[in-house]
């Protein structure tokens, strides 16, 4: 029991997020051409319209809603709304691309003890919030313990630990 106290369900990672959409084609286009996800096969036994996409270690499952007019539309980009966040290499490049694609966005800045994190928020076609950030600037500091790392650094360490196992299986 001691080894599962911090992880009672023995979770390994986030698998996917599921989002309802009013237009499957429009949402697929957005997640594929704006965020770089790739469409993947979904089980044919489903009796509803949808699409699965994958990228950056996470799946996005799009579910076609039967009554699109029932999706409440948000006009304001609110950084405090539900959202998914992606780490990027260049905030300037993200801003430039969004402007070229004529996607409205809001910028924010978080500053803590001299560390600055830039954020850009925008909506997908169904008004679900997307955040792009350079959050790796902010260390991940557990409330207990002494580990201090950035999210990407932590993921890199995990990937490097798993790499010898993958190489040995080839």
Automatic annotation (TrEMBL):
Q: Which residues form the signal peptide?
A: none
Pfam families linked? Glyoxalase (PF00903)
**Residue ranges of domain VOC in the record:** 13-135
- Tell me the PANTHER family matching this sequence: F18B13.24 PROTEIN (PTHR46142:SF3), PTHR46142
Q: What's this protein's name?
A: VOC domain-containing protein
According to its UniProt entry, this protein's organism is Vicia faba (Broad bean)
């Amino acid at each position: 029991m001691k080894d599962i106290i911090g992880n009672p369900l023995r979770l390994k990672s986030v698998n996917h997020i599921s989002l309802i959409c009013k237009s499957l084609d429009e949402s697929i286009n957005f997640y594929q051409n704006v965020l770089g996800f790739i469409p993947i096969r979904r089980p044919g036994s489903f009796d509803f319209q949808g699409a699965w996409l994958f990228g950056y270690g996470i799946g996005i499952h799009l579910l076609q809603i039967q009554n699109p007019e029932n999706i409440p539309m948000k006009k304001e980009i609110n950084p405090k709304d539900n959202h998914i966040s992606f780490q990027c290499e260049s905030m300037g490049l993200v801003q430039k691309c969004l402007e070229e694609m004529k996607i409205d966005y809001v910028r924010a800045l978080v500053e803590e003890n001299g560390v600055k994190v830039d954020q850009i928020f925008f909506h997908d076609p169904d008004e679900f919030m997307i955040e792009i950030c350079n959050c790796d600037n902010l260390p991940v500091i557990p409330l207990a313990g002494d580990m201090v790392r950035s999210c990407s650094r932590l993921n890199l360490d995990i990937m490097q630990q798993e790499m010898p196992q993958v190489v040995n299986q080839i």
